[in-house]
Amino acid sequence: MKRIIVLFYFILFNFTAKAQKDSLVFTNNNIMVGEVKSLDKGVITIETDYSDSDFKIEWDKVSELYSESTYLINLTDGRRLNGTISSVAQPNWEIYRISGDTVRVKRDEIVYFKSYEKDFLSRINASIDADYSFTKANNFYQIGGRANIGYTAPKWWLKASYSILRSNQDEVATVRRQDGDLSYRAFLKKDWYYSTVISFLSNTEQLLNLRTNLKAGLGKYIIRTNVSYLAAEGGISGVNENFENQISSQNSLEAYVGSELNLYDIGDWSLLTRLIVYPSLTESDRWRIDYVLDTKYDLPLDFYIKAGLTLNYDNQAVEGATDLDYVVQTGLGWEFN
Questions:
Q1: What 3-state class would DSSP assign to 221?
Q2: Number of Cβ atoms within 10 Å of the Cβ of 6
Q3: Which of 77, 102, 279, 300 has the fewest other C-beta atoms within 10 Å?
Q4: CATH number of domain containing 239
Q5: pLDDT at 265
Q6: Do 154 and 111 lie in a common domain?
Q7: Backbone angles phi, psi at 186, to 5 degrees
Q8: Which domain of life is it from (predicted)?
């Protein structure tokens, strides 16, 4: 009987409102009709005409979904599909592929989907945050900020990020730090992927005017569920470095191996940690480490509070520089999806 009611709502709203053609049935048998936009990190987003902001609902609270929208869909076994989703074949869900046979899966095998529109903006996600600190006693101030933007296509994504920090204090040298990257990832079968990254780093603690990395490697999602993912990656990195006490820049070749863990079903909290080790192939006994730890707490209206640690280690730092540089940042941000 419940399914008949849902199908009735579904047909009715298809005739009365083009924008509201999807419906969700929750585990408590409540029904919500609107436009289902995405599932990401264990949260499904739906837009309705009667609210000025999207509803975000935990995925495990959804028992049925009926939609005519086309999505980019990721499954736990690594498959990436394009098509529509429906739960009409309970307990299985059906994915009607744009090209190919219908695929039947369990609900929890679907770990990600996003409405696939032809317009450019629907495939973009972005965030920006800033922080500021001031202490009158020693005239200390610190300003910083981070920005991220990404574009998702059916079989690849492109992301860019930038971070800046500057602090000043009486009788202490000014501290400056900048880093950023441009990343391309092409998705392969069985949750493998190919990655290319161009990154740069500049910081006064290590007397580093500029370090530029060009990395190319192969990675795999070892675990990918609605609550977390764990990925491992390795490859080759070409490095160009210029230090304050050197006239010319120097080039080297490194291998790299790393891992990334993302936990995103901790209520409104999420946590990301990434570790990459670079053993040099051209400089004897040299190795470097890059480490990132970010945690975020979601606020209403797509705002968030974020805290993070970024660490860089070089066991063969140039003369006069420290081998370890790290920065801790907290700030308020906003994201666009």
A1: strand
A2: 21
A3: 300
A4: 2.40.160.40
A5: 66
A6: no
A7: -105, 130
A8: Bacteria
Q: Residue 306: which of 293, 296, 316, 314 has the closest Cα?
A: 296
**Predicted pLDDT of residue 259:** 97
- For the chain, what's the residue count? 337
The b/e string for 152-174 (b: 16+ C-beta within 10 A; e otherwise) is: beeeebebebbbbbebeeeeeee
Q: Are residues 111 and 159 in the same domain?
A: no
Query: Where would I find the beta strands (DSSP E) of 170-286?
Result: 172-187, 192-203, 208-224, 228-243, 250-266, 269-279
pLDDT digits (tens, 9 = 90+) for 315-329: 998 888 889 988 888
Name the nearest CA neighbour of 276 among 263, 293, 264. 293
- Which pairs from 180-186 meet CB under 8 Å and 24+ separation? 182/158, 183/158, 183/159, 184/156, 184/157, 184/158, 185/156, 185/157, 185/159, 186/155, 186/156
Q: Which tens digits make up the pLDDT trace of 34-86?
A: 889 888 888 898 888 877 778 888 888 999 998 888 888 888 888 888 888 98
- Could you tell me which residues are beta bridge partners of residue 221? 231
Tell me the torsion sign for CA atoms 137, 203, 151, 226: negative
C-alpha distances in Å from residue 68, one per residue of 85, 95, 116, 293, 300: 8, 11, 12, 39, 29
Q: Where does residue 112 rank: exposed (0-12), middle (13-18), buried (19+ CB within 10 A)?
A: buried
pLDDT at 62: 92
Residue 232 and residue 131 in one domain: yes
219 with 163, same domain? yes
